[in-house]
Design a protein that fits this description.
There is one protein chain. This protein has a five-stranded parallel sheet, sandwiched between helices. The chain has a five-stranded antiparallel sheet with strand order 7-6-10-9-8, with helices on both faces. It has ten helices and ten strands. The mean pLDDT is about 85. Helices cover about 45% and strands about 25% of the residues. It is of the alpha/beta class and about 280 residues long.
Length: about 280
């Protein structure tokens, strides 16, 4: 983790509560700063980078829900855990809708605070990593497109370059024809699903989607309307029958009369992200 990933800001109008939390979190390797003023804490967030904000919901100067909203405006990547009394559970849920990642109910034990902080920071790290990976992948595709425009070599060499590029990513990349038959599948997809290339080429792609033919038909209809689908969550069915949660980006190539000739699907395994959400 970077320094920012272990920096925690503790906000509670009772300094003693913050001191107890800091003493415990320090033993877990985190670096904590304390503030008893919501206004001053928000100013700290503007001036410094914190991985996590742990804030009480009931404070006389400014409510915790508003603190959560303002903190997310300052840094959308910041993880937030709210501390609430049992009678304020509804407000804690509102805070999560506003961007908080978790809540801890008073009176709490320190182990709960430590676990909540660890989960929230790990979730934050994965979200940042996923975004950076997506940006990197988009840059690679953009760079590859620019390279292809400059390519003057033989078509065979160009095709091999593209195949090598697609095989180099750990994501599953699948292309299908107008009849939903798989035309190309990269090494990342073979590893993810447990098939061999010969088993999948020519197979109707409906066998890989959890929703089968109905889901594929829905995606084709949506592609005709929007050309591109991003951040579509579903599950792919492996050879052994297990299912892998994925985030899918799809793009289609259509004829002049809007018939889909080919569909490209890039599928990212989000198993770890889903496990964290359940925790």
């Amino acid at each position: 983790m970077s320094t920012a990933d272990t920096q925690i800001l503790l906000l509670d109008d009772e300094a003693a509560v913050c001191e107890v939390m800091r003493a415990h979190l320090d033993t877990l390797g985190f670096t904590c700063q304390i503030d008893v003023s919501p206004t001053r804490a928000l100013e700290r967030l503007r001036q410094n980078t914190f991985g996590l904000l742990i804030t009480d919901l009931r404070m006389p100067e400014l409510g915790g829900l508003e603190v959560v909203q303002r903190a997310k405006e300052i840094d959308p990547d910041m993880a937030i855990v709210v501390v609430t009394a049992m009678m304020d559970i509804a407000n804690a849920i509102d805070a999560m809708h506003a961007g908080a990642d978790d809540y801890v109910v008073k009176p709490f034990n320190l182990g709960e605070i430590g676990r909540a902080a660890t989960r929230a920071l790990e979730k934050r790290a994965i979200q940042i990593q996923n975004r950076q990976y997506q940006e990197k992948l988009e840059n690679r595709v953009h760079e590859a497109t620019e390279d292809l425009e400059r390519v003057t070599a033989e078509l065979r060499d160009t095709k091999q370059y593209l195949v090598n590029l697609l095989h180099s990513t750990v994501d599953a990349i699948i292309t299908t024809d107008g009849s939903n038959r798989i035309e190309f599948i990269n090494d990342g997809a073979l590893r993810m699903l447990g098939y061999s290339e010969n088993e999948l080429l020519g197979l109707d792609v409906q066998h890989l989607y959890q929703g089968g033919n109905n889901e594929v038909a829905h995606l084709r209809l949506k592609l005709r309307e929007e050309q591109v689908i991003q951040d579509y969550e579903t599950e792919l069915v492996c050879k052994n029958g297990t299912k892998v949660p994925v985030n899918v980006s799809l793009s289609g190539l259509s004829t002049n009369d809007d018939k889909l000739m080919s569909i490209l699907a890039i599928c990212k395994d989000i198993t770890r992200q889903k496990q964290l959400e359940k925790e």
